[in-house]
Amino acid sequence: MVNKVDISPELYDEDASSGSLGCFGWCLYLTSMFFVLATFPVSIFKCVTIVQEYERAVLFRLGRIVDKKPKGPGLFFVNPCTDKFTKVDLRTVSYDIPPQEILTKDSVTVSVDGVVYYRVHCPMLSVTNVKDAHHATKLLAQTTLRNILGTKKLAELLSDREGISHDMQGSLDEATHQWGIKVERVEIKDVKLPHQLQRAMAAEAEANREARAKVIAAEGEMNASRALKEASLVMAEAPGALQLRYLQTLNSIAAEKNSTIIFPLPIDVMAHFMNRK
User: Fold this and answer.
1) Counting beta carbons within 10 angstroms of the beta carbon of residue 207, is it exposed (0 to 12), middle (13 to 18) or buried (19 or more)?
2) Per-residue confidence (pLDDT) for residue 45, from 0 to 100
3) Which fold has domain 93-193?
């Protein structure tokens, strides 16, 4: 956990928060300190505040930030009459983006939801530059999701989720930097298509599969024909091979159809007709 936070000069006005209270401010502060000491030790319960390890406190004194860095973790002193503080949680927050109806670049309406992981990296900016940093980040995440997906086609939306998440993270991180928010990760959870489009895509995929199956079957037939042609040439060169193949075929038929009686025709008789042809 980082205790010290560097604040960009462009985002934070050092002169406006230098802690200079002026003469009247110091008079009020010293007067309040006198009452705190006069009511000691009862006032100690109002003057000591505890900040957890994962929290930081931005301390205001008469409307001005006291130090250039937040308080904590641990104990720190607060003047109950002149000081006010705001605790900021530094832990990572996950936000589920509700389903958004989005019109893609190719005019298809889809419902997309996602999740954003972010954290406060500068407590002072998150308090001084925006009223509610968490609420503003959530609204910006919804708007950014619609804007980025509106420039994508349906095929890109279904196949390039990682690239879309990276674009969203960069856009959100750039916009929330001045609020003291660091966007760590953005993920697209689910893309819901209309039922008619789902049926059309399923029919298209089935047609593509059938076309590939026919091509594969045709290639198999062609390869089998070539193999049979080569086998026939081999058998033509060796007549005894044809006789052995004939007997092997009869043996296979007898084994499978053992209830059928086969009277084999001698191969010599068939060879006589083959020679005449």
Assistant:
1) exposed
2) 74
3) Tetrahydropterin Synthase; Chain A (3.30.479)
